[in-house]
Structures are given as C-alpha cells and as structure tokens.
Amino acid sequence: MTWQIMKKIAKTGIATEKPPAAVEVEALTIHDEILKILGRALTIREIDAGSCNGCELEINALSNLYYNLEGLGIKFVASPRHADLLLITGPISRNMSTALAMTYEATPTPKVVVAVGDCAINGGIFGESYATIGGASKVLSVDLEIPGCPPEPIVILQGILSAVRYRLGSRSS
C-alpha cells in the first residue's frame, strides 16, 4: 500500500497516526537495497522458543499498514528451508533447544540469526532455570541482538536491515 493511500485513510479517521518519518525515509530505499543484496525478497522464519508473546505482537505489527513489511520486500515463511534469516524470540526453553538447533541446520547458508528481545538475548526475566537455558547464543551463533522488552517494531525492522546489510551485504560486494 502506498503512502498516498495511507494518508487518505488517515484523513478519513480509520488510521489516527502517520508512519514514523524513519519508516517513510527508509521505505524508499529498503526494497531496492534488499533486491541488490539478495536479488529477491528477504525471507524470515520466526521462531518462538518459549516467549510470553510480547515480541511476537511487535513482530506482527510489522505486517500492518503502518510498517508494510511485505511492501518493503520482506516476508515470513513457514519453512526454515526457504529462509534467509531466523528471527528468534523468547528465552530458550530446554524442550525447544533441540528444535532450534535443527531449524538452524535446516536453514540454507548464508543464514542470518537475529535474537529479538531481552529473553532471546540472555533469558530476560526468566534467566536460566530448570525450564530455560537462557539466550539463543547458548544454542547457536547469533549475528545481531535487538534489546528491549519488547522492542518496538521500528527497532526490530532497523535490526533486521542492519543484520542483512552486515551479514549478507558483505558477500555481494
């Protein structure tokens, strides 16, 4: 959806806020940059490894009209075999550590791993216990950490783009 349509919707009262200036400026170049780096859309496999769903709500917000993730050339996929980037949320529960490792192995290289939220970084308020082992870095190599409880959608988007630029952009240059 274009910004002109969103402005029209905002005038009619359906949407009360306009997109953040950072999103509007970035939106002009994000799609082109992703195509330059990957040659196609960026595909993300989101993995909830035991979270409270706070981070998932913020990640879901990226798909609404306000942020329009798919319009930027980024989409979520159901299989790690189709993913370029793994987006991990929540403290890693003991039962999910094996599934997380298997998902990582199933993702084709080059792959990017992003830990979203304090829980995915270091276990957050859950820490390490009989039920959780802590952050995602205890199971696999994490390329970028996005702190927050939960981080705002714009911060998640900026983190995803930073990870892609750093990890995948270096191979295209």
Describe what this molecule looks like in 3D.
- This protein is of the alpha/beta class and 173 residues long.
- The chain has a single domain (29-172), classed as Rossmann fold (3-Layer(aba) Sandwich).
- It is 43% helix and 16% strand.
- The protein has 6 helices and 7 strands; from the N terminus they run H-H-E-H-E-E-E-H-E-H-E-E-H.
- It has helices at residues 3-12, 21-38, 54-61, 94-106, 118-122, 153-172, and strands at residues 42-48, 74-76, 85-89, 92-93, 112-116, 132-134, 144-146.
- The strands form 2 sheets. Strands 2-1-3-5-7 form a 5-stranded parallel β-sheet.
- Helix 3 links the parallel strand 1 (42-48) and strand 2.
- Helix 2 packs parallel to helix 6.
- The chain is globular and about 45 Å long.
- The two termini are 31 Å apart.
- The model is unreliable at 5-16 (pLDDT under 50).
Strand content: 15-25%
Corresponding CATH architecture: 3-Layer(aba) Sandwich
Question: Using DSSP, what is the number of strands?
Answer: 7
Shape: globular
H/E element sequence: HHEHEEEHEHEEH
Low-confidence stretches: 5-16
**CATH level-3 fold name:** Rossmann fold
Q: Order of strands across the widest beta sheet?
A: 2-1-3-5-7
- Rg over CA atoms: 17 Å
- The termini sit apart by 31 Å
Arithmetic mean of pLDDT: 83
Task: Count the domains.
Answer: 1
Overall structural class, as computed from helix and strand content, comes to alpha/beta
Q: Give the CATH class.
A: Alpha Beta
How many helix segments?
Answer: 6
Helix content: 40-55%
| Main sheet specs | 5 strands, parallel
